[in-house]
Amino acid sequence: MENRDPIPDSGPIVRVLSIILGLALFGILATAVLELDVEATGLTDTVMERIGESGVDHPPTAVLLNFRAYDTWLEVAVLLLAAWGALVLRQATRLPEQPAARSPGPVLDWLVRMLIPLAIVTGVYLLWRGTDAPGGAFQAGGVIGAALLLLRLSGYRSIGLFSAAWLRGSLLAGFAGFMAIATLLFITGWTFLEYPPAWAGLIIVIVELLITWSVAVSFVALFVAARPDDSASGPVGGER
Amino acid sequence: MSEFLIYALVAAALFAICLHGIITRRHILRKILALNMMGSAVFLLLITIAERNQVDGVADPVPHAMVLTGIVVAVSATAFALALARRYHAQTGHTELHDEDGST
């Protein structure tokens, strides 16, 4: 199959039509862009005025986890759906174990032992720094997810150890924790996803911790579940 | 021409080029890449707006945060699309979309 001819792209007529369409779209977009003000301040002043109430000092973090927490909550939902969808495609409730534990060799083995603790420390640091500098749950989740993947790719057991309930719980933690806190505050008289300024810092750290774990596991789940079965080779027939 | 307009027009051009890519390329992977790049064009515009809106060296955090949100959504969508593509390839052996009757 790999030796097959490259797939031909669309014929000349489609190409020409597509170029015309592309130019027309560029014309529309460029007109829209040219109408924008070249100088403006947007919402910068509004955010900086109220940042004291957000519980964090880094403006983007304040917007992400407080002022526009809705966006972040639903972003976690998208990630959850993607990871879940990948698992459904595999018709699996847990991720497969690494096929046969290969011997990583002394160099890789040493490197993994050095890098994993370093990655965990870096991840937690990024999470904590998110309150006053670039960083936060998604960056931290990315680093910790990479650590889990490194373990798996170098032949150690990692995500395959998770039971179905653990995997599901880990994927859900960020979305469900976010919703639980918002609902609790809603019941006690605040607007949905509004935080009391005195507690905002603590709430943001708790939510970020849960999101970090969910993001890490979701990334690994997407990576692992997207791979076809390691045992199967070639097209799978009659599986459905 | 101001710096803002240069970046904004590049974003518009990138978006249009990616549309061309989605229409004319047959390979699923290329279509997914074009879609992903289309998202990047939008991020470029948002970052440009964040930069334009800066006050006292602080870039507008709202478009900035939107890009951060968008990146994760784009990564999720791309990863899921790739999972679908691999499943499709495993099931049919094709790397391009076909109709039910086998014609392209």
Q: How would you portray this structure in words?
A:
The complex is a heterodimer of chains A (240) and B (104). Chain A is an all-alpha fold. Chain A has two domains: 27 residues; 173 residues, no CATH class. In chain A, α4 runs antiparallel to α7, α4 runs parallel beside α8 and α7 packs antiparallel against α8. Chain A is globular, with a radius of gyration of 23 Å. The C terminus of chain A is likely disordered. By secondary structure, chain B is an all-alpha fold. Chain B has one domain: Helix Hairpins (Orthogonal Bundle). In chain B, α1 packs antiparallel against α2. Chain B is elongated. The termini of chain B are far apart. Chains A and B meet through α1, α2, α3, α4 and α8 of A and α1, α2 and α3 of B.
Structural class of chain A: mainly alpha
Counting copies of identical and different chains, the oligomeric state is: heterodimer
* Biggest pleated sheet of chain B: none
Span between termini of chain B? 45 Å
Order of helices and strands of chain B: HHH
